[in-house]
Amino acid sequence: MTALTSRHTDRAGAPARHPGLNLGHAHREGEESREEMVFGFWVFMMSDMILFGLLFGTYVTMLGGTAGGPGPKDLFDMRGAFFETMLLLVSSFTFGMASLALKYRDDRRVLVGWLLVTLLLGLGFVAHELYDFHRMFEAGGVPSRSGFLSAFFSLVPLHGLHVTVACIWLIALLGQLAVHGLDAQTKNGLIRLAILWHFLDIVWIGIFSLVYLGGLA
Amino acid sequence: MSRRTLSDAEAQERASEQRSYLWGFALALILTLIPFGVAAFAEWRPLHLYLLIGLCAMVQVVVHFRCFLHITLARNKREDLQLILFTALILLIMVGGTLWILFNLYYRMMPHMLP
Amino acid sequence: MNDSTHWLLGRLDASALPFWDALQHPTTKNVINAVIASGAASMVVLGAIAVVIGLTWTRRWGWLWREWLTSPDHKKIGIMFIALALVMLARAVIEAVLMRLQQAFGLDGGFLTADHFGQLFTTHGTIMVFFMAMPFLTGMINYVMPLQIGTRDLSFPVMNQISLGLTAAGAAVVMISLVLAPFSTGGWTGYPTFTGHAANPGAGVDYWIWAVTLSTLSSTLSGINFAVTIYKRRAPGMSWMRLPLFTWTALCTAILMIFAMPPLTVATALLALDRYLDFHLFTADMGGNMMNYINLFWAFGHPEVYILILPAFGIFSEVFSTFAGKTLYGYKALVIATLAIAVLSFTVWLHHFFTMGQSAHINAVFGIATMLIGIPTGVKIYDWMLTLFRGRIRMSVPMIYASGFLMLFVLGGLTGIVLAVPSVDYQVHNSLFLVAHFHNMLIPGLLFGMLAGTNFWFPKAFGFRLEERWGRRAAYAWIIGFMLAFFPLYALGVLGMPRRTVAFFTPAYLPWTLTALVGATIVLLAMACLVIQLWVSVRDRHLNAMPIGDPWDGRSLEWAVSSPPPEYNFPVIPEVYGRDAFMLEKERGKAYQVPDEFPDIVLPANSPMGVIFAVTGTAMAFGLTWYQWWMVLLAAGITLAAVIARGFCRNTTRTLSGEEVRRTHLTWLAQVRATTPVARSREQSTDNRGLPVPPVEGAIQ
Ligand code: HEM
Ligand SMILES: [Cu+2]
User: Which residue does chain A place closest to C297, by CA atoms?
Assistant: First the structure.
């Protein structure tokens, strides 16, 4: 890779620096492309952050548009939101453990174990969220009912969709791990997925605070 | 790839990074429990409650950035931090502007849209 | 539509054919419109057939696939972007002339139906912004920026292919809508509730939504790619304050793309939710609020106009300093001004809806913010003038465009400041005054910039110069045509003629609309000159060949390599010692040296990802528009599978042996030694082989 990437001479010796856990010196292979890829992914996250931010803004402007239909207090369930919050938070932590297992070259089974736990938590989150939506639908909280509900269903499920995509990516990476082992590309994938995962948890902080707690307060 | 014994320096680094994740988890947990707890069990005035929720959320975001995403003030990671700050600025402009404009419009023309 | 084909075709049926209406109701007007629409449709179909036959006849399919469609080379992708932009430009200009024709005869009627006219201004605006301007500047940055910063490719070559694929898919959708009509009539802004399902249930708005969405995604990816490349891939020594100005503007444009595209994604996605899933975000009833859309759209829309203009500023900076033979005056001020414009552009979007009903103090704040942008822009104008001051200016084709730009752009900017006063805007908003204003920025600004850039860098890309005589004719025709076509619109606007009107009843408008038609005709001639220029240049390519690669005595690194450059750009990555890196090398006699060693070069391997995204993107958009759900699911499934499969791919690079590189490079260097240098004054003659006379010792460059 060296010839493809032009380096600053003054940075030649320094370890790669990027958001998320840096793998450090023991993982030299693919390090240069890793810094670039992770930075690119981080920039993409920032773009995504704007997207979510605007949907949050739209949601707030639509709070009054209930059109006589059910509002937050009629539809939201604090216990469900709390449970989902916990699932995501714990999954963020387990992904952190997976990152450490990756960095310090633990036994492969440890890494895969943490990843599987994370995957289960992610899938659990998606499942519970779907159940939550189902419950809202039963109570008459469908998006076509009002502007407020439309705004809710354009914000919260988008986060859920992101988590779903992250889960699919995780499965694909487990596949790569099985086929190619822990090579530079698989590592790059895991590092970026970790960033996505933690990022989605940050977006969720906004959702549980603003949408659920704000709505129920 | 079998487990390799870590050098002393590596073992130290690992311990400190593990601590960072644990701290992050503990702080995030507390910062989640506080607003949920107060919202569920205490009878606060809405305004105070909103302020508390907002404050906890903001601190928790910082905790996640610091402990899970390892964004620090270190010199060689300034680009990432700058990017976050720039994003925050754009968000402030866009979302703040949006709320300002739309609520002004509601106030003047569509009072039924005020929550 | 019977049930047995419904699952297959969705809601697509014979009524989508452009002549269907005329068959049902053969009034004179309907027939005229059907003839025009069918003519356009047959041009699309015949054009496609001609391309297929041509490729088969000359057995070029394999070549097209290997050398172009699957190539990850930023130079080829850039050229393909620009080719796409030129094709779309031709269509949009023809539509513009048709609109001018209609308004010239529009007193009490004209010949176009209101619906047809609506489609014309919608496709014209949408194409010009999303499928002409965006691909043009993306292609320009793609081609030039990596060469200027001294690297071999963008950071993410395959993502670059995907960007091209997505834009091509969007353009394809707009083209298909000529054959299987209609397109939207909601303007390039697509405001609900007009574009909502209740008022507009047909396929037109859906075509628009998906075409624009594809383009938006493409631009977001391009923005990330450019920004990361500039951050991470500069050649050693290329510090921030040594970046060529075009690269600076490319960086700012990239940042704007990253942060300003999301609002549009949100706006079109939410509009789609309203239309497809019965959401009520922008509807008039059930708690919806269309003002949200307008706000979101312009939170994108205003930064977008700076996405369009900044690269042109960069090109003009390069052109001015190269053809004045001087280093840029006030480089630092230009950089700061570019950054200031980029940030300020996020703070002014409300000036597009001063009249929506918010209170006067909000209007005042945004009006003042708008006027502030005039300051950095003014700084730039003065810097450019001072760059020219006392230079030995060569009036090449790019310089003609640049001079036209300098004068006309200031006028357009002045009318912009006028419009930034809310109380004035209340009088002229939604009138042709506005149309005159933004064309005054976009044609002399963006379009002249792109055409100047094309004339400037074409020799770099293809190894021969564009012929100057026809180039000059095109440039003057553009300038004069533009003035005649758009200055009358200022008057019309002040006289009260609304934009987007198919017909009018005030005879006082007529002289102005007729003048504008003359102008539009001259613009059409300018387009013809461009085509002839290309034709003549290709015909005389051996006469105008300049393999050495530096026809204008250039200043930045892209001129340091052969024309066309080798696929790896630089045999060894250059070291940079100052601003105007290549000029510095020439001054120190360090240009064209033999590197000590030639290491192997690793390049990205070909990949079909771009083509896959182009095909599935088109299919998805088409299926969504006509409710052919099987097609949507199939295309989405293929896209997902392709992305996952790509993740499993490990052979993503190929290696070029240093020996091969050495041979190529030494051959070229031998050619350099054998070439007679040309003085700047003779650079527009056939003597120009791309090797300028070395700078005079001690002279100011
Ligand atoms: C080449 C010469 C051009 C001519 C003769 C021309 C002519 C026109 C005309 C007649 C309209 C409709 C005005 C109305 O609403 O009544 C229009 C609209 C528009 N044009 Fe052009 N145009 C030209 C070039 C461009 C370029 C280069 C761009 C952008 C890069 C552009 C962007 C637009 C846009 C965005 C609209 C607004 C469409 C809408 O109303 O939604 N035009 N143009
Ligand atoms: Cu604007």
Answer: A54
Is C380 among the catalytic positions? yes
What are the distances in angstroms from CA C304 to CA C216, C238, C262, C309, C662? 11, 28, 11, 9, 44
Question: Residues C213, C269: contact at Cβ < 8 Å?
Answer: yes
Give the 3-state secondary structure of residue C107.
strand
pLDDT digits (tens, 9 = 90+) for B23-74: 999 999 999 999 999 999 988 898 999 999 999 999 999 999 999 998 887 7
Per-domain boundaries in chain A: 34-216
C209-219 burial by CB neighbour count: b if 16+ within 10 A, else e? bbbbbbbbbbb
Question: Is the shortest distance between the CB of C125 and ligand 1 below 6 Å?
Answer: yes
Angle of helix C204-232 relative to helix C157-179, nearest 10 degrees, comes to 160
Q: Chain C, 365-394: which have a CB under 8 Å from a chain A CB?
A: none
Span C250-283, pLDDT tens digits: 999 999 999 999 999 999 999 999 999 999 999 9
> Alpha-carbon distance A67 to C284, whole Å?
11
CB proximity list for C662: less than 8 A, separation 6 or greater: C571, C598
Residue A10, pLDDT above cutoff 70 = no
Minimal Cβ distance to A51: which of C156, C265, C287 = C265
Gyration radius of chain B over CA positions: 21
Bridge partners of C107, per DSSP, are: C504
CATH code linked to domain A34-216: 1.20.120.80
Chains with at least 3 CB pairs less than 8 angstroms from chain A:
B, C
Is C130 near ligand 1, meaning CB less than 6 Å away? no
Instruction: Give, for C454, the enclosing helix (H) or strand (E).
Output: helix C448-462
pLDDT tens for each residue of C443-498: 999 999 999 999 999 999 999 999 999 999 999 999 999 999 999 999 999 999 99
Kindly determine whether residue C358 and residue B97, on different chains, have CB atoms separated by under 8 Å. Answer: no
SS3 assignment, position C427: helix
Considering the candidates C377, C431, C537, C625, report the single residue annotated as catalytic: C377
Are residues C280 and C414 in contact, defined by beta-carbon separation less than 8 angstroms? no
Which of the residues in chain C have pLDDT under 50?
1
Q: What was the pLDDT predicted at A6?
A: 37
Alpha carbon nearest to ligand 1 atom 43, residue:
C96
pLDDT given for residue C210 in this prediction: 98
Residue A104's pLDDT is: 87
Question: B-chain residues within 8 Å CB-CB of A50?
Answer: 87, 90-91, 94
